[in-house]
Amino acid sequence: MIRSVQAAPRLDSRGYPTVQVDLTTDRGVFRAIVPSGASTGANEAIELRDGGVSAYGGKDVQKAISNVRLVIGPALVDSGLKVDTEQKMIDSLLKNLDGTKNKAKLGANAILGVSMACARAGAAHSGIPLYEFLQRESGAKRPFVMPVPFFNVLNGGVHSGNKMAFQETMIAPVGASSFTEAVKMGSEVYQQLKKIIIEKFGPSAIGIGDEGGFAPPISQPHEALDLLVEAVSLARYSGRIKFAIDPASSEFFRDGNYDIGLKDDKPNLHSSEQLTELYRSLLQNYPIVLLEDPFAEADWDSWTKFNKECPVELVGDDLLVTNMKYVQKANDKKACNSMLLKINQIGTISEAIEAANLAYSFDWSVFVSHRSGETTDDFIADLAVGLRTGHLKSGAPCRGERVAKYNRLMDIEDLLGEKCLYAGSQFRVAYK
Ligand code: PGA
Ligand code: ZN
């Protein structure tokens, strides 16, 4: 059924090469392009880059591409596995071909591209949309639930050149009545935010970061949140839009302390306790509903302590790397109550689904995520609907690779019409 598997280097949104896979079956050609992170977790599956003095400053992906062409492709064709009913077997074949714990041999970028393309082919061969194929694979319930989009409208950390240590400040239109209305609300707030930034900092301050959010000259989380309060109020959505923060704190964790002045050239060290105090005050003063990676991936004890008192969704990204082993560990340690789902952190669609189902079994939430280095591939839009995760983040409502996902979700909502619900304020428990 699978006739051939080809791969080629194509650019991601940061201008670096990534892996594009074209999988040919008797029904056509099915394409997938793999994303790439910047604030990556230490335990993520390995993204294979050529390194050394190769092209693209060492970031070329020729090795990963020949692994698709010469190793994975022939093995898949020989296996005779069926794309419509045997995704799990395909993914275990990919995993076993690699044979390492973290896909270091063939590269998670090579493997994931093939896994995604197989799922697309599987949906087409089954005569159903991709979200329905993923729903079938995961065993998620019906009806389909449209996720709340968490728009990252202010970019900091390693995603922008301003002095803000915190990586992401997001708006979540939980009070919308549909996904499409949520996009409209997000876009209107984004445009208000732009006006405010011009007024406060001048027109040169409206440059955007890797995920499409603005990166004005601010450095403190409360400055970011104050801007959002103002923008939401100008757009007349106060009360209907909530906030979320992903400090991506592993990036500014140094020798047991958090340096939130890292990008400001003057150290501003916070102990875990002081950082916790900062989060407490932010949670008290702003309508925040979700906090991701508030502590570093190595700082497990702080997670556990904070989880006891945290009144909002506490999401593990670098901490869990979409890997069952760390999801299990975090549940044993009671370290968080939600898993970020990034397919390239683990490298196959079946393993990503297994990790999500494990998280659900602990009564956690699952939050689907893009990477900061993206492409116009919109796979994760279908994934969020198929797994009924209730929320997803794909950056600002701006930049082609970010809006590709939001636009696909509006297509899905149009397609499903009455047959879907919008998660709204129930985004944490939509899967139930
Ligand atoms: P990344 O950032 O894609 O650069 O890792 C996203 C995140 O931290 O959530
Ligand atoms: Zn994160």
Keywords summarizing the entry:
binds 2-phosphoglycolic acid; Enolase-like_C_sf; globular; three-stranded antiparallel beta sheet; Enolase-like_N; 432 residues; metal-binding; Enolase; single chain; alpha/beta; magnesium ion binding; binds zinc ion
> Quick one: biggest sheet?
8 strands, mixed, barrel
Strand order of the largest sheet: 5-6-7-11-12-13-14-15
CATH class category name of the largest domain: Alpha Beta
Structural class: alpha/beta
What order do the helices and strands follow? EEEHHHHEEEHHEEEEHEHEHEHHEHEHE
Find the CATH superfamily of the largest domain.
Enolase-like C-terminal domain
How far apart the termini lie comes to 36 Å
Bound molecules: 2-phosphoglycolic acid, zinc ion
Output mean pLDDT.
98
Total domains: 2
CATH-level-2 architecture of the largest domain: Alpha-Beta Barrel
**Annotated CATH topology of the largest domain:** TIM Barrel
Strand content: 15-25%
What is the alpha-carbon Rg in Å? 21 Å
Secondary structure: helix percent:
25-40%
State the low-pLDDT regions, or none.
none
Number of helices: 13
What form results from the Cα inertia axes?
globular
Number of strands: 16
Domain Enolase N-terminal: 2-134
GO molecular function, one term: phosphopyruvate hydratase activity
Keywords: Glycolysis, Lyase, Magnesium, Metal-binding
Pfam families: Enolase_C, Enolase_N
Overall description:
- The model has no long low-confidence stretch (mean pLDDT 98).
- The chain is an alpha/beta fold and 432 residues long.
- α5 packs across α6 (221-234).
- It folds into two domains: 2-127, Enolase-like, domain 1 (2-Layer Sandwich); 138-429, Enolase-like C-terminal domain (TIM Barrel).
- 39% of the residues lie in helices and 18% in strands.
- Strands 5-6-7-11-12-13-14-15 form an eight-stranded mixed β-barrel, surrounded by five helices. It has a three-stranded antiparallel β-sheet with strand order 1-2-3, covered by helices on one side. A three-stranded antiparallel β-sheet has the order 8-9-10.
- The protein is globular.
- Bound molecules: 2-phosphoglycolic acid and zinc ion (ZN).
- 2-phosphoglycolic acid binds at residues 37-40, 167, 246, 248, 317, 369, 371-372.
